[in-house]
Specification:
Largest sheet: none
Mean pLDDT: 85
CATH topology: DNA polymerase, domain 1
Number of domains: 1
Structural class: mainly alpha
CATH architecture: Orthogonal Bundle
Radius of gyration: 20 Å
Helix content: 40-55%
Length: 153
């Protein structure tokens, strides 16, 4: 049975918010970022996404929330920008010293959320394309061949 895409209808009294690098007042604000997340989460529930995926979305949003809302890092700047997402990526890479795989696990839900924001016309810029995943080294260890396994037994 194929999943149907559920399109949320809403009445916005404004144009989609751009997510850019300029200090304009019409950027995606943190409050809107978190409010829209509730719409995103409910839409994903309606789409029938697994409970584990929904739990992961909640968990990973919980990881980035303290970072984005930290007055020490960003002061009174209440806009969500590409630089802040890259800063988060740098933070978990250098300060937290997470491996690239873990960083990608943390970034994928963010990319999905920003992609949804764009598709639902909450934002006018494709921020999800600016979020780049880390390169992961290729595992060069080869599994044993059947002949090698027989020789061992």
């Amino acid at each position: 049975m194929a999943r149907k895409r559920i399109v949320m209808k809403r009445n916005l009294d404004r144009e989609p918010l751009p997510v850019t690098n300029s200090p304009r007042s019409d950027l995606l604000k943190l409050d809107d970022f978190f409010d829209f997340y509730e719409f995103f989460f409910n839409a994903k529930k309606l789409e029938g996404i697994s409970h584990r995926t929904l739990d992961d979305y909640e968990k990973h949003m919980g990881y980035i929330t303290p970072f984005l809302t930290s007055p020490v890092r960003f002061g009174e700047d209440r806009a969500v920008t590409v630089e802040k997402i890259r800063s988060y990526q740098s933070y978990i890479l250098h300060e937290k010293q997470y491996k690239p795989t873990t960083i990608n696990v943390r970034l994928r839900p963010l990319k999905a959320y920003f992609h949804w924001l764009y598709n639902e016309e909450f934002v006018s810029d494709k921020l999800y394309k600016s979020i780049k995943l880390m390169r992961i080294p290729v595992d060069l260890v080869q599994p044993l061949a059947k002949k090698e396994i027989k020789r061992m037994t």
